[in-house]
Design goal:
single chain, 0% strand
């Protein structure tokens, strides 16, 4: 038997050594990435939201910085303080009102203080759900605690979920507060951050496409954060405060509904008009006060018509279902803060993907790719 070919054996050994070396390096890099992600994952939503706020507010920061002599640190501090005063504080009031309303409702049910009116006979004639709904409603009217006791397993899980959501609102407000502070720090170093962002896109996509996608990302984040989410959030705060002042029950919950409707581009008059009807139906205010609150709620319900031009745009050219799904999915995953992060990131991903699809070098609109007409 002849001896093995020495040069071929050495080449095989070098290739095996090099492949082993490459796999070890890849394994070390993957392990490092996983460890870094594990360390940063508790703060990931907070950091992403801080970046979104910083990108959305940076034009305002630049305008304020010019007014204060180019002092970017002072400008970022002023914007952060203004955001805390105009957004975080009213949000805390409304969410605290929502929590108080939930706890009060639970106490009222436990003490049989909730008076449920008798159902109309017409309810029983409704198709499919009418008879069952009429029976359930009648039981609630006759003896609400007994009905609650009979539905204890289902209501227990629901109550835990509701109380968990209300408790998570406090955590979300603290995260929102921290996000504003971190966004202020990011804006203070905005020029360096913009250069680093462009450098990352250049490294990933090349100089030609990197600059284009960096510009697209910035424009999409600002359009969604200002033109869609920003308008919806500010209008929800305005409507919620008006409901709170007018003495309408559950102002925090109604403000949250206005927020979701605003993101879906549905007029908040759906909430304010029934609130006005309730105001006049209960008759708890005098005529002058009722008229004043009616005007206030009508103006608050149409505030988006004024806010959209002031917020520098009417949103982004993306399907509204994309924004809405991102908002609802983000809220289900990470609470109130996740609503804004999810809507912005999903819209950004959609825009980048569709831009990539449209920029197909093989689809030149000529040749065999174009279907022939018959």
């Amino acid at each position: 038997m002849s001896a093995p070919d020495k040069p071929g054996h050495d080449l095989e050994q070098r290739i095996a050594s090099r492949v082993t070396d490459v796999f070890i390096r890849i394994g070390l890099v993957v392990a490092l990435v996983l460890l870094c992600y594990r360390a940063i994952s508790p703060f990931l939503t907070l950091l992403i939201w801080s970046l979104i706020l910083a990108v959305a507010l940076y034009p305002l920061h630049e305008a304020v910085a010019r007014k204060v002599g180019g002092r970017h640190g002072l400008a970022a501090t002023l914007i952060a303080l203004l955001g805390l005063a105009l957004i975080v504080a009213p949000s805390a009031v409304l969410m605290s009102s929502l929590g108080d309303s939930v706890h009060q409702f639970i106490r009222n049910v436990q003490t049989n203080s909730v008076q449920v009116p008798a159902p109309s006979d017409a309810v029983a004639t409704w198709p499919f759900v009418g008879p069952k709904l009429h029976s359930l409603w009648s039981q609630a009217h006759a003896n609400l605690p007994a009905l609650v006791q009979s539905l204890q397993p289902q209501l227990g899980d629901l109550a835990k979920s509701v109380l968990g959501f209300v408790g998570g609102i406090g955590v979300g407000l603290l995260q929102f507060l921290a996000a504003f502070i971190i966004a202020g720090v990011i804006m203070a170093f905005g020029e360096e951050g913009a250069q680093a962002n462009i450098a990352i896109f250049h490294r990933v996509l090349g100089k030609a496409r990197g600059a284009e996608f960096a510009k697209l990302s910035t424009a999409t984040v600002r359009a969604v954060a200002q033109g869609v989410i920003g308008v919806a959030f500010i209008q929800a705060i305005i409507v919620g405060l008006c409901l709170l002042v007018a003495g309408i029950p559950w102002p925090g919950l109604l403000a949250l509904i206005v927020l979701v409707l605003g993101i879906a581009q549905i007029p908040s008059l759906i909430v304010t008009v029934p609130a006005i009807a309730y105001l006049w139906w209960t008759g708890t205010h005098g005529n002058f006060a009722a008229i004043a609150y009616t005007v206030l709620l009508l103006v608050a319900g149409m505030a988006d018509n004024v806010l959209k031009p002031l917020m520098l745009g009417r949103g982004v050219k993306a399907p509204m279902v994309v924004i809405l799904l991102g908002a609802l999915g983000g809220m289900a995953t990470a609470g109130i803060l996740g609503m804004f992060v999810g809507a912005t990131l999903l819209t950004l991903g959609y825009k980048i993907f569709m831009n990539w699809v449209a920029d197909n070098p093989d689809a030149d609109g000529s040749g065999d790719d174009t279907p022939s007409s018959t």
